[in-house]
Amino acid sequence: MATKRHISLYYGSISINRSFRFILDWVQNFFRSNDYCRKMLHEYIKVTYYSEATDIYSYGSARSALAAFLKAYGIKEGDEVILSAYTCLAVPTAILAAGGTPVYVDINSDTLNIEIQGIQKCMSPKVKAIIIQHTLGKIANVKEIVDFAQSKGIVTIEDCALSLGSRINGKLIGSFADAAILSMELSKTLSIGWGGILVVNKTEINGLVKKNYNLLSEKGRASASKDLCQTVISAISYHPSLYHILGKYVLFAGFTSKLFRKSTPTNEFLGLIADDFILKMSGIQASIALLQWKDAQRTIFLTNKNATHLRKLLYGLNIEMPGIPELSEYGVSPRLSFYTNDRSVAVDYFMERGIELGQWFDGPLSPVPTNPSFNYLPGQYPLAEAVAMKIVNLPCHSRITGRDLDHMENVLKNFISENPENIVTNV
Question: Which region holds residue 37: left if phi is over 0, alpha if psi is between -120 and 50, else beta?
Answer without folding.
Answer: alpha
